[in-house]
Amino acid sequence: METSQLRVHLVTAINAAVAAGAVIMEVYNGDLEISYKADDSPLTLADRRANEVIMSHLKLSGIPVISEENKQVPFEDRKNWSVCWMVDPLDGTKEFIKRNGEFTVNIAMIVDGAPVMGVIYTPATADLYFAISAEKQAAKINLSGKSLSVESIFQEATILTPKAPVAYNRVVGSRSHMNDDTLLFLETLKTDTGASAEMVSVGSSLKFCLLSEDKADVYPRFAPTMEWDTAAGHAICKALDIKVYQQDQTTELQYNKPNLLNPYFIAAHDQFFA
Known about the structure:
Elements: H1 3-28, E1 35-36, E2 42-43, H2 45-58, E3 65-67, H3 75-78, E4 83-91, H4 93-98, E5 104-111, E6 114-122, E7 127-132, E8 137-142, H5 150-156, E9 158-160, E10 170-174, H6 180-193, E11 198-202, H7 206-212, E12 218-221, H8 227-239, E13 242-246, E14 265-269
Parallel strand pairs: 3-4, 10-11
Antiparallel strand pairs: 1-2, 4-5, 5-6, 6-7, 7-8, 8-9, 12-14, 13-14
Helix pairs in contact: 1-2, 7-8
Subcellular location: Cell membrane
Pfam family, one: Inositol_P
Membrane topology: Peripheral membrane protein
C-alpha cells in the first residue's frame, strides 16, 4: 500500500481513536457496567461503546476489521484479506476497572500479515502516539484541552527519537500479568549483561509507548496476548527500528493468523538481538 493511502487511513484511525477515547472517559467517570466473557475476562460498557464508535469510522474505508469486540470471522474468509484493520477498542480493561488510567485505544493496519501503521491513544491522559512504519518516524502529542484537526496534530506532534541503550536495565512488564518466566528473564538479563536491571510494571500497550519514548529498553512478554493487543504498538516500534520478535528472537510477530493468539515475544532495539 502506498504511503499516500496510508496517510489517509492514518487520519481515519486518529479520528476514530480520539472519538473512542471520549466515550471511554464518559463511562470511566460513571457506571462501568462490568460483565464477563466466556473466558472470564472482563467487559465493560466502555469496551462496547468504544467499539461502536471505531467501527462507525473504519467502515467508511471499505477495509475489513478484526476487533476484539466483534464476532470473529473464520480464517477461511480472513485468509483472503491482504489488508485489514486490527483494533482493540479498550486495551487494559482490568486497569480501566481499577481506574488507574493505564488503558489505551489501539488501532493498526495490517498488510500481508505485517503491521504498517499504528495509533495508540490514552484516554485518561490524552496522549496520542502514531506512526506509519515505512516512514521510519513515530510521533506523540498530548491533546488535553485541545481541539485540533488531524493536520494540526501532524504539525504540532513531537517526533520520537529513542536511543539504542548502552545497557538493557529498564525492563517493562505487565501490571496484571507478571509471572515467573518474566522474572526469570530479568534475572538472566542481570547475569548475562551485568546490568542492574529493574522491572517497571504498566498496563496495556503503554509498554510499547515506553519503548518508543526511550523510557524502557526491553519488553519481554511471556504471557498470552492477542493480535489486537500488540499490532498498533508493534507498528510504532517498527517505525523506530525497535523489533518485536517471537521468543525465538529471529521472527517478527505476524498478524491475521489462523489463530489470533500471539506467541510469546520480546520487544527491544536491534542490538539486543545481536
